[in-house]
Each structure stands twice: as C-alpha cells, then as structure tokens.
Amino acid sequence: MKFLVIDMQGFCIPEFIPKEMTFTDGRYVAHYWIKALKPFKDLDPKIKKHIRWFENNHHHLRYNDGIVDSNEVPNILYKHIIQDQVDTVYVKGHIKQHFLQFNLGQYNGIRLINLENTLDVPHLLQCMPYNCTHHINGQKTACVCSYENCKTIYNWLIGKLP
Ligand SMILES: [Zn+2]
C-alpha cells in the first residue's frame, strides 16, 4: 500500500481554493504556495470579509500571496498521486475531501479517506509554523499551517498503521 497525507489551507470564495498545499508520504514533504485565481478586488464584499477573517485569525495566509499558478493544481495532484502510484490518500476535513474528490474524479482506484470522524485523530490547532514562511508575521505568530498539519497527521497515522 502506498499512501499519502495531504493538507491544504485556503479560502471558500464560495468554492474552496487552496492557498497552501502540503503532501507527505514520510520520505518527502512537498509544499506549495498557490496564487489566487481571481483578484481580491473582483470578489463580492461578503467573500472579502470572510477572506480577511481567515487571513487575520486562522491560517494567516494572504489571499494575494503565492508563487505557483492555480492552474497548476491539477498537475500537482497528478504528479504526487497518480504518477507516484499512490492508492490511499488521507486528508482531514470534508471541504478538503470534496476538493480532492472533485479533482481526482476521473481517476479510479484511489481511496480517499477523510479522518475527520476518526476517533482520537489529533486536532489541527494553531501552532508556530517553524517550517514555513508563507504566513503573515513569518514564524512569529501561531497559525494553522498545512505543513505542520501534514506532519501531525502523518505522525499520528504511522502510530496506527500495522
Ligand atoms: Zn504554512
């Protein structure tokens, strides 16, 4: 069995768009910072308010930041999952699960497991993003980081696997 842990942090505009994506299978960690698809100025005021809240209170990732073009996301998923012949993907949260389901729908045979309702799965809390420089205030303020989340889930998971 070849498995992969994925975590993403992003915004709902209202559909989920990832801003930060992290993948790990224990041998490598891949970390992407995704550019916004639509400019902030073109968004609905209600959505802008939602974005500001997440920027300032949750993951501290700026909507306008990023390096990788959002059109690259399907290719990134293809590379890490299909090309790498992963058969099981672990993710925590139904929004992230739906995003992956939607993007991987055309490929059969991949088990997508949402750990959200699994007993004793760790909470993904705000922490200092020691391995990540994507967040407002750099590494000085606690926030929710996909890199840290991915590590937390992976470490929990390997303790559970036979
Ligand atoms: Zn981060």
From TrEMBL:
- What protein is this chain from? Uncharacterized protein
Q: Which organism is it from?
A: Zophobas morio
